[in-house]
Design brief:
Coiled coil: 178-205
Structural class: mainly alpha
Number of helices: 9
Organism: Porites evermanni
Helix content: 55-70%
Domain J: 84-156
Distance between the termini: 24 Å
Radius of gyration: 28 Å
Oligomer: single chain
Protein name: J domain-containing protein
Mean pLDDT: 83
Strand content: under 5%
Order of helices and strands: HHEEHHHHHHH
Strand order of the largest sheet: 1-2
Keywords: Chaperone, Coiled coil
Length: 246
Amino acid sequence: MLIRRLLPRLTTIIPVRTTNSSPDRARQTWSIVKQTKYMYCSRPESQIDTKTRLCWKCKALITSAIEFFCPSCNIIQRPLKKTTYFEIMDSPKTFDVNTVQLNDKYKELQWKLHPDKFSDVSEEEKKISEEQSSRVNEAYVTLLKPLSRGLYLLNLHGEHVTESEATSTDGEFLAAIMEKYEQISSSSEERLEEIQKENNEHLEKCIQDISDAFAQGDIQTARQEVIKLNYYNNVAEYIRNQGDWS
């Protein structure tokens, strides 16, 4: 049982000067221009492409999907569901992530978006800051670790796999994992250190294989290696649980 638990029209109307122009005609022409202008400026969000939107407060056009504040009124904006974690954290959409830059970006965003900085604003702004801060947390945690990052990349490529679903059907591989658990359960501390070293080598190779597979566009191989990584992570956790050493 323990093993199983692990295991977005502008019509331009230009008034034309004529010899028959009259004040009434001029007023009528400019009225059309004015109406057309307002039609354009207040177009619904449904007519804007997916990477642009309107500020919920001042209705100014925001052209970036990852703009956290309106460039016109500086009001915090609601998070866009279609924005990926890589976009949020300003990181290339690859398996190889610079974790130092990721940490720096996380601190920068939380300094700007954390709810504590929105204590004296409207309830709507407070709610949005909580949503944005939570989304940044999700992005950071997901991209920080190789396993969660790999699973997320698989999902972006159409391979919808969760950590609990990351199970292998390779009998030989599963047998080797089972044997490893048995060894851990009955090994001395010295032997556990050897097993941990072996498992760390498996983890490093697996992470490199995942990186290579994604770089080559081989999603199926990446999927298989991510599943293996899940098992090796569980073995590492099981070893750590055998004592207070690591």
